[in-house]
Amino acid sequence: MDINTIFNHIQVLAGIADTVAQTLTAVRQRALRRPGGIQEDDFIAIELHKLDEKHHWQEHDLIPASKKLPPPFDFERLTRFMAYGFMMSPIQYHWFSFLARAFPVTKVGATVPTLQRVALDQLMFAPFGLACFFTFMTVAEGGGRRAVSRKFQDVYLPSLKANWTLWPAVQLLNFRVVPLPFQIPFVSTVGIAWTAYLSLTNSADEALAT
């Protein structure tokens, strides 16, 4: 697969993920603002609330009941997410290439190199990637140094914990089975849900801060 195709793939998927996140936000907003609040037929809003209660990494709801949340669809926010995907794709590509060279997976020895890749990826690149995400988004939204610092205090560690519940298993499969040219498209596709979660986390923190 061509490198430029991979980069474009990541950018598009980042946009899809944020679109999903904004759609979920709009659904819950409408349900909360109806007379009487959420009704029994508001399946998605109810499931989102159950998900918050089951996996309560943040101190607040993933989609809090706030009238200060973003509008149903924010094209500037979508552009920021696509720009972030475009920015990070070359870094991720070179990172995966480095892991493939440093810990080659062969037919004779596959388990140990795969585990080494996963460990290094989750202990080094995952914290770095989340730091880049929250810094980029905060600055792109017009925030300064204080806003970045507050974002890290509020959501960085909970998001990192959430990362470690999902990505070690995904990367274990990715590094063990998926060929190198398709590893980034694979994690990007799986990452639609993860990026949507980050989008919701970022926007929820902004809503509560304003």
Q: Give the quaternary arrangement of the chains.
A: single chain
Number of helices: 6
Which percent range describes the beta-strand content? under 5%
* Secondary-structure element string: HHHHHH
Low-confidence region ranges: 55-60
Please report the distance between the alpha carbons of the first and last residues. Answer: 44 Å
> Tell me, what's the shape?
globular
Portion of residues within helices: over 70%
Biggest sheet record: none
The whole-angstrom Rg is 18 Å
Total beta strand runs: 0
Average pLDDT level? 79
Structure classification:
mainly alpha
What does this structure look like?
There is one protein chain. By secondary structure, the protein is mostly helical. The protein is globular. Residues 55-60 have low confidence and may be disordered. The protein is built from 6 helices and no strands.
How is the secondary structure organized here?
Elements: H1 3-33, H2 43-54, H3 75-102, H4 111-140, H5 145-177, H6 180-209
Helix pairs in contact: 1-3, 1-6, 3-4, 3-6, 4-5, 5-6
Please summarize what this structure is.
With 210 residues, the chain is mainly α. 78% of the residues lie in helices and 0% in strands.
Key phrases:
about 80% helix; 6 helices; mainly alpha
